[in-house]
Amino acid sequence: MRTLQLAGVEVPVIGQGTWRMGEDSSQYASEVAALRQGIELGMTLIDSAEMYAEGAAEEVVGEAIAGQRDKVFLVSKVYPHNASRQGVPLACERSLKRLRTDYIDLYLLHWRGQYPLEETVDAFERLREAGKIGRWGVSNFDLDDLHELAAPACATNQVLYNLEARGIEFDLLPWCQQQRLPVMAYCPIGQGGHMLAHATLGQVAARHAATPAQVALAWILRQDGVIAIPKAVRPEHVKLNAQAHDIRLEPGDLEALDQVFRAPQRKQRLAMV
Ligand SMILES: NC(=O)c1ccc[n+]([C@@H]2O[C@H](COP(=O)([O-])OP(=O)(O)OC[C@H]3O[C@@H](n4cnc5c(N)ncnc54)[C@H](OP(=O)(O)O)[C@@H]3O)[C@@H](O)[C@H]2O)c1
């Protein structure tokens, strides 16, 4: 699978999300199996957060990566209300315990909250010096937030990006590409919702003998410096997502998609889920 440099490490351009995992104990074994299957298929970047199922998603990840920690690039996130000087290291320790590891490759501020950015960044830097995290980054930061952050050490910005939510193409994405700041696209397949039923998407998919979700992923990966992190539990979804890497959309496909999923013509406030 194609890789890009994130936090100084080569990571696959398709990773695995974990939101909604850990919420239903009857799904635990399937979720662990899905993440393991994804790792085998090369989707070795796993994205989680202390927020997901209030820590239970990280426990699923911990089980999935047991015995193969070195194969995986782990991303997790701190709640804004824990992003203080004292709160960050405590939250990180709790995440490490649930993930059953002694370091997180990339630790993100989930969204901006009440604590000054310098305080959170300082706490992240201390964790990095202590070897608890490899690098740190942010999530749900618009361009003005990134300007205010003004931190070259920030390793990524994780934001909503899919066919229906293209606002970042106007200013945020070009700026990140110019700065060589990798962007992680969350909800890349629109949470499996009505976007996938769009007729044009279906027609493009048929031309490639692919599924709409695969085209949605391939469409994201046409951009330089972008990583998609779909979440999938069903084994067939995991497989299809990994295979989406091999789909190359033609200019005609992109034009057809542009007709119905419009690119932004002006600045749009960063959308969040
Ligand atoms: N930083 C943030 O604020 C933020 C916000 C939202 C999400 N995220 C991260 O981004 C990840 C992805 O976003 P998301 O989980 O909200 O949405 P998503 O990945 O766009 O969609 C997940 C849904 O799509 C289904 N699906 C997966 N692969 C499919 C396929 N090939 N064909 C059809 N359906 C498919 C899944 O079903 P099954 O599970 O049944 O297979 C699931 O219901 C999250 O899990 C999380 O790690 C971050």
UniProtKB/TrEMBL annotation:
It holds the Pfam family Aldo_ket_red. SUPFAM superfamilies: NAD(P)-linked oxidoreductase. Residues 14-260 form the NADP-dependent oxidoreductase domain. CDD domains: AKR_YeaE (cd19138). It comes from the Bacteria. InterPro entries: AKR (IPR020471), NAD(P)_OxRdtase_dom_sf (IPR036812), NADP_OxRdtase_dom (IPR023210). This is Aldo/keto reductase.
